[in-house]
UniProtKB/TrEMBL annotation:
One of its GO terms (molecular function) is transcription cis-regulatory region binding. Residues 44-104 form the HTH tetR-type domain. Pfam families: TetR_C_11, TetR_N. InterPro entries: DNA-bd_HTH_TetR-type_CS, Homeodomain-like_sf, HTH-type_TetR-like_transc_reg, HTH_TetR, Tet_transcr_reg_TetR-rel_C_sf, TetR_C. It comes from Streptomyces capitiformicae. Coiled coil: none annotated. PROSITE patterns: HTH_TETR_1, HTH_TETR_2. PANTHER family: HTH-TYPE TRANSCRIPTIONAL REGULATOR RUTR, TETR-FAMILY TRANSCRIPTIONAL REGULATOR. This is TetR family transcriptional regulator. Residues 1-37 are annotated as: Disordered.
């Protein structure tokens, strides 16, 4: 959709009228000139509709079969609206994946290591087991093996989004005396994020066993204390 595209033909007409006016002619007040519209305005509601359509299209057909035409159709806009914001489907997906990394996960603050881990696992489990995420993440990982740009964006989204939270949980536990200082941050991240990601995304278990998150919480806390 083209928004705000206008012309200024009236300004030229006003100039012509002024040039032909005689000395005794009645002066008419100058017509207010319309400010040029410039570039098309990118409506935020359209942008959000396209972003939502990308996630749905990725989940439905995968990155390889995804097309700008399909995204536009799903979003209820023309292809031009998509191309005005992103020049290709690669740049569109890279932008969305990078946005996930920036948003990250909320940092739990329950007052205890096990409480923080339990809350993190509840939020992460719901996110990873969402049907859309369950389709998109494995598909983009497969594409990452063939496309360095996607690989870099995926690593940024998955690592930085989790790393900031894991670092915060460990730092709070150190401050409370629950974990020793000098913990290896990379190993702590592996302990905190690895098991749930493995089961939910790699193995893609249809359902977590009863009590799994509680057991995972206790095991992870014990592992962090042992570092």
């Amino acid at each position: 959709m083209l928004v705000g595209m206008t012309t200024n033909a009236d300004a030229g007409k006003g100039a012509e009228a002024g040039a032909g006016a005689g000395a005794g002619a009645e002066r008419t007040p100058p017509r207010r000139r319309r400010a040029p519209a410039g570039a098309a305005v990118l409506r935020e509601d359209v942008t959000e509709a396209i972003r939502a359509a990308v996630f749905e299209e990725l989940a439905a057909v995968g990155y390889a079969r995804m097309s700008i035409e399909g995204i536009a159709r799903r979003a209820g806009v023309g292809k031009t609206a998509v191309y005005r914001r992103w020049r290709s489907k690669l740049h569109l997906v890279l932008d969305l994946v990078s946005a996930v990394a920036v948003q990250g996960l909320p940092l739990p603050d329950t007052g205890s290591l096990e409480g923080d881990l339990r809350l993190l696992y509840e939020v992460t489990s719901r996110a990873l087991r969402h049907p859309v995420a369950g389709q998109i993440i494995p598909d983009l990982q497969a594409e990452a093996a063939r496309n360095p740009e996607i690989a870099e964006a995926m690593q940024k989204a998955l690592r930085e989004g989790q790393q900031s939270v894991a670092t915060g949980i460990v730092a709070a536990a150190v401050a409370r005396g629950e974990v020793r200082e000098g913990v290896d941050e990379d190993l702590a991240l592996d302990l905190i994020s690895g098991p749930l990601y493995w089961r939910s995304v790699v193995v893609r278990a249809p359902k977590l066993p009863k009590g799994y998150l509680e057991s995972l919480t206790r095991a992870t806390a014990a592992g962090l204390r042992a570092l």
